[in-house]
Design goal:
It is built from six helices and seven strands. With 201 residues, it is α/β, with parallel strands linked by helices.
Length: 201
Amino acid sequence: MFSPIIDLINQIDNSSISDHRKDLLKPLHDYLALKIEQKKAINLNFICTHNSRRSQLSQVWAKVIADFYGININTFSGGIEITACNKRTIASLAGMGFKINDPRGENPHYELIYHIKKPIISLFSKMHNDPLNPKGNFAAVMTCTHADNNCPFIAGAEKRISLPYEDPKAFDDTNIESKMYDQLSIRICTEMKFIIGELMT
């Protein structure tokens, strides 16, 4: 794993997580713990409306933190509309030490690299039931309330978990947009470290 990413993870302080957020994170922690106990594959599909910001960051950090702790977790993402993985999402990840290949285009399939021995993570906007995503034996993690309310049924999901994040889109084209995207990215990283790290105790 690239050293800037390791350094960032090591500096994360879980004490910033409120009790309310810990309550929201508990179902995901419990799902992971059960799968580990059962020695079954772990598949997480993070879902938000456009699969552009929150679900993409969640897919990335859940995978990276799992690898950091040596736990095999397969992560995916999707939406209920296809747009594109937002360029600000990509810029934030690049600033945190990820290497990213940008093929450009209307809905580019960004290639995100975080480890020389791990497969790339492909980031692009797609439906939650995209052929690349699992058809069964997965948890659907709803990262925005709009998708949670407007997509009441996720076919094949054995568990549905509500874990909403505020949309940084509200700050697009302002002088603090990069700060707000980075804050969201760090928050997701922090929460993934909290629940996955607890699996090691």
